[in-house]
Amino acid sequence: MKKKYYRGDNIKSLQVKIFLITSITISILVGVFFVFEFNKDKKYIYEQQVINMKENSFTIRNSIESVSIPMLIQSILEEYAQNILNNRDTKDIGERDPFEIPPHEIHAVNIDGMVMASTKPELIGQMLADVTQNKETGLNEVLEGKEPYSVEQMEHHGVKVFDFSVPIRENGKIIGALHYVEPYMKLEKMNRESFIRHIIFALILIILLSLFINFFLNKMVTNPIEELSDAMDKIRLSEAGEEIAVSTKDEIGLLSHSFNKMYHALKEREDEIKKYTTTLEEMVEERTSELQQSHAQLIQTEKLASMGRLAGYIAHEINNPIGVIVSRAECILMDADEKKYSDLLIKDIEVIRKHSNRIGTIARSILAFARKSPMEFSFTDINKIIDETLVLLEKQFSQNNICFKKNMDYTLPVVYGNSNQLQHVFFNIFYNARDAMPEGGEISITSRLNGDSNIHILISDNGIGIPEQNLAEVFDPFFTTKKDEKGTGLGLSVVYGIIKSHKGEINVTSRVDEGTTFEIQLPLKNDTSGEA
Hints:
The chain has helices at residues 14-64, 70-86, 90-93, 128-132, 137-143, 185-234, 251-334, 336-339, 343-370, 382-398, 419-435, 491-501, and strands spanning 105-110, 115-118, 150-156, 159-170, 173-183, 378-380, 402-408, 415-417, 441-450, 454-461, 505-511, 515-523. The protein is of the alpha+beta class. Among the domains are: 15-193, PAS domain (Beta-Lactamase), CATH 3.30.450; 375-523, Histidine kinase-like ATPase, C-terminal domain (Heat Shock Protein 90), CATH 3.30.565.10. A hairpin with a 3-residue loop joins strand 11 (505-511) and strand 12. Helix 1 (14-64) runs antiparallel to helix 6 and helix 6 (185-234) packs across helix 7.
């Protein structure tokens, strides 16, 4: 028979746990606040003590600066001592003379540190440093004019004191100093009173906050848990099924126990629902998978169809007018001798014909990207291809304040490839670099032999760079980050396809606001001269 669970059986109350945790937390927080406030008050007391000594010292100093007779100075000091006696704090010293509490003293010293007048007449004529058995560093700095006043904490004959010194001047020249010494015990008493005051406040605050917070926690946490437990007991119908572990005997344990009772009642209906749900999930998952596959195929088909239409449009719209341009250029060249055209004009017409032919070749390259078509490969000089590309771009790029820096090894062996396709690669990369440097910059080109099997080409710019999250997508068709419809997203995907068709590799690295580097590796063909 299962043991019945009663809330009153040795319950380690959650309420007690909450009270302990909140009380400890509040105590820590109030403790931190207490330390901060006490130190702040302690500092304030010290500053007020210093201000009080400063005011007293300057008052006495001002009284004796106009007096040159030592006896009168001695009289002023004794009068001030009597004032202190009349206003003494009987809580601290009873009926004793405050100047009988060593070493509460006031001295007037000369420039050499000798006591000239003092509330202790027996010290007159002695060196102050010998009397106090201290170096009196602050007093010396005041006598030397290094400091306008000095305040130090030290011990005189085993008693902690404040040591305050101010200069005495005659006609603007320092002739001595007023040395004011006051016991530390008044400050210690004020600190003790401040400490007790803060302790009492902290204890009251801890008690009040603990009671207040725990009252609301009980109302908002413990009581609702008990009500929830009672509510779950009401909906219990049976005792069949698997229980959850009850590991504590507090209110949470009570909640767990009540949940087990409710679980038995719901288990049977849950099993039935699970059976239908499992069947339905399998059907939904199967249909979802089919739809995802169909959707992916549809997207890919649409991309290929779009690229096919784009290639056909380019071939129709570019090749035909380019053919006309080439034909007219050739006709002009045929009539050049008869018409006696200048050499400069003939040279310009030849440039027009050459690059018109190249435009046609580029259009056919785009068609090659849209559908598989054989490409003519031959041994070609990669540096020559780069130089020919730069001849076409240098003037245009210079207008955008962009210059080229070449570091190319012209002893490289030839590669086996299609020169037009490779030139198309460099065109695309250079134009991307230009778009990345709207304010101008530098494009660096390096070619070198990488081992015995690859030619390594690096093209770097110092433009705006590519965000790291976009690097993995730069070679995807239709992906572009250019604004204002400047890019179609096909340039680098075409480049990637061309390099792959040459059995090469292309990679890109970039840092935002620092620049981008394209790294191309093309294999050397030593023995074969066949397929690409």
